[in-house]
User: Which sequence fits this backbone?
């Protein structure tokens, strides 16, 4: 049996807000005809015909639990409002069960399965280590390509190093009047030099001079860390393997999915601690923090979606998954891929640590990776507290039973009202991201064990 | 000055204008083993990198004052499904139904899940009309939060604090903020009306005008003859709003001196004149308004478009208790309403209509409705009669004209029984126009939600009807979740 989804699960598939509104408008029985739902084992199919503006109704079909969907409407959104509307109707129990699927639905399902089988076998070949034909044909060419890239990156980072030293020689004061172009130009050169990671850091610096008091200090921090990266890359030969991988990853060398999956996997029951969505260039990115129940290990899974595409929704906060994770190389060992997912397990309230634990683990991680500026935090039995310093009126922090407090991100980033309301001055467990500016709370569990996304 | 601050101020000015801080100048490799750079700017950057890591890794935990814990709750929390739906509504989906969610939760003695309180309190900040309903379901946690955010402290003025006993803790009245003091007064008034009035009288002279108005309105609950001397005194207040609020309360107080004065003034303007064939009503609008009349809340200046004397007449007649006229102009409302009138007849009827609505007088409302007066009078009738009269009017109107629509829109929900049938019948058959859409939108919020299947069975292909069916279904599920 496939469990009916909640409305929230359905709407989470929507690629954007307007698709959500559109979905509501077709989630009425009126325009639909011939809807049905057929389930077999742990799979199910939903279908229906929706009257649109054209003469012929659109045919919509959804397969579960994957979900896979198709619709004959011309919308470029994926999934379109008809798919979402049909799912919403189903979630309300308004799609009748049917004994069998209509011919057109069966045909679609068949077609999709064939395509899937073809890609799966291709992927399997890749995982077994079969080289793509081009790479296999000429290992020498691949080596030459690699060397060429290293030279370009090295030249680019040398240029960045000169630029950084120029900034400090002429003084940072000018940065406040410099505007977007100032960083964008050098970021564009880093893109040309194939150092995309560095380019990303540079682009984000635009916001620093406008970030209020202390911006020069924050800008100097970023410049110093970039300079450190150029030095570390130049002297990569002298570094130990995991640190060298970290440096290369930060510069912008990517590791392929296949390479990661080829490494050892860690099986555990992973609790989803929290997630956060951001916009990176034109991609939507979701950071999902996981924690292994047995190992206590933290993991960060990144999910990306192009504009108009949905993000994967299978790792929802408050859910546990029995899964194997494959970790990217590097010293912090946070970023991971879900290599194999075995089952969904009932959620558990994670056991949080103290503020001192969190600070100590971050310090230890920094010793290995000084560029690390986001660290998973899981605090137990903390109570919201206000800062006793009257100069920081309105600054909030979380205090653990020993009285030690970790500041929350400053007021400008948003007040933690839902967290305050949930706690009411009573101990809660909080998962979030610790950053040099303070803690960004993502999820909280109250005394009754209810998980609330903040 | 720490070494980090020295580094920052040097970088701000630039190494070409300012030498490196002492200890770094000339020290090649001062960045540690990391670097062998000798240019000042490179030395500075390398030193800064070490400082960044040192400062970030060496950050010590701070100290902060934990918030005092909120008191325990008495009411159970609304269930997860109800909470999810409330979150959806707060995010803007069918948020016009919020009052119904709040009322249903309050009726069942439930409170709002804590994490939704901030958004709910924000709604109450923007929309005053929601505040009493929010106060009923916010629980102790809501009041705890309201003390932390000035935008939300209205909640403390709504009374009904489930934890603090009513009117205890006189300190709140003497030292609290305006909203908190109002809450204290509301609670005490509910428990001991006389004590609340005396507390207010004791501080009255030192209250600000907005507080005087807010506190005076609290006396509406439990209004009694003992309040009269205090309210009479308030008729002499310096602020017009306060005077008018006092007059309004006295007008509602049976047997008050103000009612007697209003009756006397009303009689002075209206009499029955015996005629040869039929008797008729003769009105004599006042030529001048005396100070005492104004003190009782009658406004001197006519609004634009009204004649001065007609305005005075309307107010004087509308303020007189309706029983004034029984025995003076006739024996029953029907007889009096049926009398022939002079040129002031329309003003007289408008005044009586206002009076019947304000005094909730069913006898007068019936008599006036028989004469074809405004459908607004329906509210003065007992609920069963109101709906059956409205249903009859709705059935009798051939088309859904604007007048009929306005009558129906004037009826509060829930619409059930005969009225619901008449409304659904109109929806099934009315012409497709703006009136149909307006009726559907009102019906969506006021029809009994069990009727959603019936609406669907109407098989009427229309966007507004589909919206009606979907909204009824939404409400049906919403109420089920709050059981």
Assistant:
């Amino acid at each position: 049996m496939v469990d009916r989804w909640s409305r929230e699960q359905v709407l989470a598939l929507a690629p954007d807000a307007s698709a959500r509104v559109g979905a509501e408008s077709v989630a009425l029985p009126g325009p639909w005809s011939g809807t049905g739902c057929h389930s077999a084992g742990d799979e199910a199919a939903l279908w229906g015909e929706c009257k649109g503006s054209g003469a012929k109704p659109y045919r919509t079909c959804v397969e579960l639990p994957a979900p896979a969907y198709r619709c004959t409407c011309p919308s470029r959104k994926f999934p379109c409002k008809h798919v979402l509307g049909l799912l919403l109707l189903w979630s309300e129990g308004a799609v009748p069960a049917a004994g069998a699927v209509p011919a057109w639905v069966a045909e679609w399902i068949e077609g999709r399965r064939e395509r899937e089988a073809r890609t799966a076998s291709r992927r399997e070949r890749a995982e077994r280590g079969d080289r793509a034909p081009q790479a296999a044909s000429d290992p020498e060419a691949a080596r030459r390509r690699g060397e060429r890239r290293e030279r370009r990156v090295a030249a680019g980072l040398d240029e960045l190093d000169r630029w950084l030293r120029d900034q400090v020689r002429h003084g940072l004061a000018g940065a406040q009047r410099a505007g977007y172009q100032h960083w964008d130009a050098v970021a564009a050169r880093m893109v040309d030099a194939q150092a995309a990671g560095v380019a990303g850091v540079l682009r984000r610096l635009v916001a620093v001079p406008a970030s209020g008091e202390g911006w020069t200090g924050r800008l100097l921090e970023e410049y110093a860390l970039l300079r450190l990266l150029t030095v570390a890359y130049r002297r990569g030969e002298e570094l130990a393997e995991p640190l060298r991988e970290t440096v290369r990853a930060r510069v912008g060398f990517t590791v392929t999915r296949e390479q990661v999956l080829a490494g050892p996997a860690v099986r555990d029951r992973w609790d989803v601690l929290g997630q956060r969505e951001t916009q990176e260039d034109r991609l939507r990115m979701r950071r999902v923090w996981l924690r292994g129940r047995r190992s206590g290990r933290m993991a960060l899974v990144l999910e990306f979606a192009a504009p108009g595409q949905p993000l994967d929704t299978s790792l929802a906060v408050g859910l546990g998954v029995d899964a194997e994770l494959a970790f990217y190389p590097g010293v912090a060992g946070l970023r991971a891929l879900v290599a194999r997912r075995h089952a969904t397990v009932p959620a558990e309230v994670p056991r949080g640590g103290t503020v001192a634990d969190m600070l100590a683990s971050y310090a230890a991680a920094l010793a290995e990776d000084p560029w690390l500026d986001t660290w998973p935090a899981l605090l137990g039995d903390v109570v919201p507290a206000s800062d006793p310093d009257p100069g920081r009126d309105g600054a909030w922090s979380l205090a653990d039973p020993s009285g030690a407090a970790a500041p929350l991100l400053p007021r400008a980033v948003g007040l933690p009202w839902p967290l305050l309301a949930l706690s009411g001055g009573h101990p809660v467990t909080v998962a979030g991201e610790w950053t040099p500016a303070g803690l960004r709370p993502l999820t909280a569990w109250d005394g009754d064990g209810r998980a609330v996304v903040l | 000055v720490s070494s980090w601050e020295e580094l920052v101020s040097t970088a701000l000015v630039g190494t070409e204008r300012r030498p490196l801080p002492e200890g770094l100048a000339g020290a090649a490799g001062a960045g540690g083993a990391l670097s062998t750079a000798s240019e000042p700017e490179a030395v500075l950057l390398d030193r800064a990198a070490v400082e960044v890591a040192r400062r970030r890794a060496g950050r010590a935990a701070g100290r902060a004052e934990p918030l005092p814990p909120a008191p325990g709750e008495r009411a159970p929390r609304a269930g997860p499904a109800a909470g999810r739906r409330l979150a959806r509504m707060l995010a803007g989906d069918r948020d016009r139904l919020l009052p119904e969610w709040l009322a249903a939760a309050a009726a069942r003695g439930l409170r709002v899940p804590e994490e939704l309180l901030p958004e709910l309190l924000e709604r109450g900040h923007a929309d005053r009309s929601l505040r009493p309903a929010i106060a009923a379901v916010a629980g102790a946690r809501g009041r705890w939060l309201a003390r932390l955010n000035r935008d939300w402290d209205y909640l403390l003025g709504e009374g009904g604090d489930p934890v603090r006993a009513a009117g205890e803790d006189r300190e709140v009245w003497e030292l609290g903020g305006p909203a908190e003091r109002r809450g204290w007064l509301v609670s005490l008034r509910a428990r001991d009306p006389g004590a609340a009035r005396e507390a207010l009288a004791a501080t009255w002279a030192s209250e600000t005008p907005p507080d005087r108005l807010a506190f005076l309105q609290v006396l509406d609950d439990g209004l009694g003859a003992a309040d009269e001397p205090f309210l009479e005194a308030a008729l002499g207040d310096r602020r017009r709003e306060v005077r008018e609020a006092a007059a309004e309360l006295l007008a509602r107080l049976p047997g008050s001196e103000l009612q007697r004065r209003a009756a006397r003034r009303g009689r002075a303007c209206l009499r029955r004149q015996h005629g040869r064939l039929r008797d008729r009503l003769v009105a004599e609008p006042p030529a001048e308004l005396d100070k005492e009349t104004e003190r009782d809340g009658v406004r001197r200046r006519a609004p634009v478009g009204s004649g001065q004397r007609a305005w005075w007449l309307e107010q004087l007649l509308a303020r007189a208790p309706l029983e004034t006229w029984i025995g003076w102009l006739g024996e029953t409302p029907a007889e009096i309403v049926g009398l022939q009138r002079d040129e002031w007849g329309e003003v007289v009827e408008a005044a009586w209509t206002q009076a019947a609505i304000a005094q909730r007088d069913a006898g007068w409302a019936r008599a006036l409705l028989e004469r074809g007066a405004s459908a607004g009078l329906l509210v003065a009738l007992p609920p069963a009669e109101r709906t059956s009269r409205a249903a009859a009017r709705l059935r009798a109107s051939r088309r859904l004209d604007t007048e009929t629509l306005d009558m129906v829109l004037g009826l509060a929900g829930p619409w059930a029984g005969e009225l619901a049938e008449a409304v659904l019948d109109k929806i099934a058959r009315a012409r497709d126009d703006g009136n149909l859409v307006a009726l559907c939108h009102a019906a969506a919020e006021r029809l009994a939600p069990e009727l959603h299947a019936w609406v669907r069975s109407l098989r009427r292909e229309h966007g507004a009807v589909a919206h009606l069916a979907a909204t009824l279904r939404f409400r049906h599920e919403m109420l089920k979740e709050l059981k």
Q: What stands out?
A: The beta strands of chain B are 62-63, 65-66, 270-273, 280-283, 340-341. Chain B has a mean pLDDT of 88. The longest strand of chain B covers residues 270-273.
